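During the second half of the funding period, the structural biology subgroup turned its attention to how the target accommodates small molecules. The most pressing case was zinc ion, which had performed well in the primary screen but for which no bound structure existed. We therefore specified the complex as follows and requested a full 3D prediction, including the ligand pose.
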Amino acid sequence: MYEDCRRMGHAWEQIGDAPLGRELVERDVWLRCTRCTMLRAFDISPTGETMWPRYFPPDGYYYQGRQGGAPKKSDYRIAWLRDIIASRKSHRA
Ligand SMILES: [Zn+2]
């Protein structure tokens, strides 16, 4: 679950308003991932920089209490590549 997003990043789409239960600040922009439903909000400064990024993950997205912290995106990509190579080898056999 969530492997595509962990490996490749999120597929953001802009949503028009703050989701239910979230406060809307005047300059807020809200995005939602089309795959995992992660929410992301940020403000845009007068010079066009993004400011105050906030993330609201779906349940179970972040690892809790894993020793050594959460795996990195590169860890997911390497595991994915190994699966692809193993799958190609099994198809040839
Ligand atoms: Zn996502």
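Two results from this model are relevant to the next phase. The CA atoms of residues 58 and 79 lie 23 Å apart. The chain has one domain: 3-92.
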